From TrEMBL:
Protein name according to UniProt: RNA polymerase sigma-70 factor (ECF subfamily)
Biological source species: Tenacibaculum lutimaris
Family the UniProt entry places it in: Belongs to the sigma-70 factor family. ECF subfamily.
Biological process terms in GO annotation: DNA-templated transcription initiation
Keyword Aminoacyl-tRNA synthetase in annotation: no
RNA polymerase sigma-70 region domain ranges (all copies): 16-79
Keywords recorded for this protein, A-Z: DNA-binding, Sigma factor, Transcription, Transcription regulation
Start and end residues of each RNA polymerase sigma factor 70 region 4 type domain: 127-179
GO molecular function, one term: DNA binding
Statement: the UniProt record of this protein carries the keyword Transcription: yes
SUPFAM superfamilies: Sigma2 domain of RNA polymerase sigma factors, Sigma3 and sigma4 domains of RNA polymerase sigma factors
């Protein structure tokens, strides 16, 4: 799959072959559901076709498609949050991907007696973390998920939620502080 295409020309007939796997992996890491990820990639290709005339060639095809996909993911979470149904976010502390959960990972007990016990404890930890995230004020939870779990860029979050970078970091700090307190009260001090 050579990507020797000039950066200012789109080749939609090659998108699926060249970018589908990359976009799917990008989406699955952020929505944690393969069917939703597939739908988002399809929506991305469709939106790309519809807006191809707006492509200015200032970025590669892949970068342009990823930017469309990011917006689709943000729209997906907005839709979920507007229905007051919080997205089910699962953080796995053992297969940490791109260091998901690294701010709390150091506090996870390191010695496990056996695999079954480890799996039970891990599932209970994830459930408690989900409860703590759900207890955050809605905007804190949304910002925390977008930045820490989904790893959106600061600029994208600020633009989509119409907030300043300093507001974003204050919300993330407050969310993390509240999550730490919640986890200490409900998990670590059991």
């Amino acid at each position: 799959m050579s990507q020797s295409n000039p950066p200012n020309i789109l080749f939609p007939d090659k998108w699926v072959d060249n970018y589908a796997d990359y976009l799917f992996n990008y989406a699955i890491a952020r929505v944690n559901n393969s069917n939703i990820a597939k739908d988002l990639v399809q929506e991305t290709f469709f939106a790309g076709l519809k807006s191809a005339k707006n492509f200015e060639g200032k970025s590669s095809e892949r970068t342009w498609l990823v930017s469309i996909l990011k917006r689709k993911i943000i729209d997906y979470y907005r839709k979920i949050n507007s229905k007051k149904g919080q997205a089910e976010i699962r953080m796995n502390f053992y297969d940490s991907g791109d260091n998901e959960g690294n701010w709390i990972e150091e506090r996870v007990p390191q010695s496990w007696n056996n695999e079954a016990e480890k799996n039970i404890e891990n599932e209970e930890l994830k459930n408690q973390l989900d409860k703590c995230i759900d207890s955050l004020p809605e905007k804190y939870a949304m910002v925390f998920k977008m930045k820490t779990i989904q790893q959106f860029e600061t600029e994208d979050i600020c633009k989509e939620l119409n907030i300043t970078p300093s507001n974003l970091w204050v919300m993330i700090h407050r969310a993390r502080t509240q999550l730490r307190n919640c986890m200490e009260q409900n998990w670590f001090n059991k």
